[in-house]
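Please, why this fold?
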Amino acid sequence: QVQLVESGGGLVQAGGSLRLSCAASRRAISWYSMGWFRQAPGKEREFVAAISQSGSSTAYADSVKGRFTISRDNPQNTVYLQMNSLKPEDTAVYSCAVGSTAWNIHEYEYHYWGQGTQVTVSS
C-alpha cells in the first residue's frame, strides 16, 4: 500500500500562484508515473498533469498548459504542481495519484490516490 498526502492548497486571488505537494509513504513511487487530477463541484474528475517515472516526460491538460508545471523529487518521494496565473475555473479539489507503469496519462491507469487538497481561486 502507498499513502499519498497532498498539501499546499488554499484560497488565492485570480492571477495568483500556488504550489501543491504530494508526499508518498514509500520509495516505490520512484518507479512509476505520477499524476495530478482535479474535481470541481458537480463535475467529473479530470486529468491535470502527469510526469513519467524519470521525470523526462510530462503531459498537461489543454486548460492548464503554459500555466501549470509538474515536477518530482524521487529521493524525497514527492511530486509537485506549480500553478501560476490561476483562474476561478481552476477551483477544485486537487488529488495526486500513482500510475501503474513508468508513463501513464489516463485516469484508469492510476491506482493509489490521495485525499486531495482544496484550491479556491477568487475573481
Q: What stands out?
A: The mean pLDDT is 95. Residues 106 and 114 are 17 Å apart (CA to CA).
